[in-house]
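Narrative progress, year one. The postdoctoral researcher (J.K.) led the effort to move from monomer predictions toward full complexes, under supervision of the PI. The following entry was the first complex the group processed end to end, covering 698 residues in total.
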Amino acid sequence: MSRNTILSELNKIISDVTFSNTIISESSTADDVDGWDSLAHINIILAIEKFYNVTFSTSDMLGMANVKELIDIIEKKINA
Amino acid sequence: MHNRHTLPWLLQVHADIDNQIKNAKTLTDFKELLKYSLDINQLRKLSIKIADVDSNNRRVKVAVLSNSNLDYIIPSIEASSLRYNLSIICYTSTYDSVASELLDTDSDYFKFKPDVTFLYLNEKFYNLKNHFEKSIDVDDLLSDSFEVLTNFVNAAESIGSTLCISNLSRTYDNIFGQDSMNFKGSSSYILNKINNKLNNLFSDSKNFILDINSLASDVGNDKWFSRKHWYTTKTSVDINMIPLFSDYFCRAISALYGMTKKCIVLDLDNTLWGGIVGEVGKDNIELGDGTALGESYRDFQKTLLDFRSKGILLAIASKNNFDVAIDVFRNHKNMIITEDDIASFKINWNNKAENIIEIANELNICLDSIIFIDDNPAERYIVSTNLPDVTVLHLPDDPVEYSEILTDSGFLEQLAVTREDLKRADNYKIDKKRKILERSSINYTEYLKSLEMTLEISKFKDSEIPRISQLCNKSNQFNLTTKRYTNKDIKSFIDDDKFITLQLKLKDKFSEMGIIGLVIGSITESKLEIDTWLMSCRVLKREIEKETLNHIIKICTENNIKQIVGKYFATEKNGIVKNHYPNLGFINEMQHKAYSSWDMDVEQYKPFRTMIDVNEFS
């Protein structure tokens, strides 16, 4: 699965949870998206876990700095 | 495999569900969506939409107070409440402010005036940990936290709020392993003690325990509690368990308000026994000892019979030849459920939706108090779409799971089983005998006379408060004003001499029916206003209301009351009492579409004569 596919899927998931219309790119951070607060963060993680059927560890959940790192984590898990 | 946290008794979601949630607008849309097992994000999205829509559901204000994070739980509770025809509105304060909310009467908690206070306290509240001291007195160890807890209970009671408190499930590492119950200082030993003390504290009050310990152990403690979610969010439960948690809470609230299902409507072939009796014949159906499926059908019948003993009615809606199917009830040696256990049989080739409507009419119950069980998905679909108020159990493919699914669904959950509940199913059997007598009587007066009825009228008794508030909360049809009251409200009517209260107990030659009717009236100077007048539908057309009015008039005369005012508030369900007051000779005072008011001049009243013997007590 290409990083672009993952990015477009993440756009869908994140806007679904946050109700935000902001288009995210790899360099986006949570601060760039309306409604992506700490509460929504966990909801986004749960939605991602369900969608890709993967499990995030505690440091996965808390450690990512931007969308690029989020995609790195997902890529690693689905290719594992 | 039965995974309880996926709520397998509900429809499982399809690919289009998120779009449906996006497009949902009306209450009907939301209720339809809640027939599915939704995840936490889906419930949260619905909760936002639901807040903007008015509903005629019962509104229940719930204050949720906790020493852990509730942000993920609240929206889910509010959305799930629609599944039980409730509209729960939650108040919650910042994390870990339980004491300041409950002990400061100026707090927002007191301003919110919750109907229910849900105290969701985890083990940190009790300071649970392993103790290695040589001698340890566990009661002494817990005395401080239980003293604080008692203050919380008093605070909730001071504003008439029903308290619901969660007990504890295991969330720690059990370093004692198999020795934990022998070692008196172990967390497991102390946790057990806490749960027992909670049971004792709440055993005979109107407050109740949300049994998280049982739920968590049924799901599996490993699955129930997530250390990852605890450390990252301070939520006391795995966030993926929240849909189940919320449903579990809402079903307790629905039981608190007496909204539990009253009747199970059952299919026969491949539901109560294996095989199609019309094809294989009575002797070849699978039921009873000898085969795996035969035994599981037998055990499912046993479970159904246990529910019947708790007061749930059983009825049959089956597409079958009547003679062939009834022969199984009469002559199959392995049948556990007998003909007498069934309150209504509809065995024919008609549409099942029609049959269910007929059952509801015959038993005088509403469609929303029925749960329908059928192995055939097509029949379930027909009933679910034609009768959206009927609860349709999503049955698994494997019959060995039927019993578990029905029980775990919680649709039949009751908080306190009353004496009347235990007798209810038999009452319907006796009603059948009355019908036979009615048919053999020359005329209706003759029939009423032959019933040999005795009515006992008295003030509300303290010992009957649970049954009285249950009637207030459950009665929909013969109910003039449909006002709902808690135990506490009932007690305040008893203690206030500005109110008159009447409880009516009926017995006849077939049975003692217990309390079947209530009246609450308020006195202002020489006027009595009837606040509540309700009766169980089982005793319609027995002239009870005439004797009740005779008695009310007597009280008025004794207390120098000149005028009685009765009101009728129309609801979807109480059409049968639209003409209650005019039929009793009241004069119309005001008439609106949904509301009418009626007057009776006490001095002009001529007592009714009936076939009922009346015993009056003050």
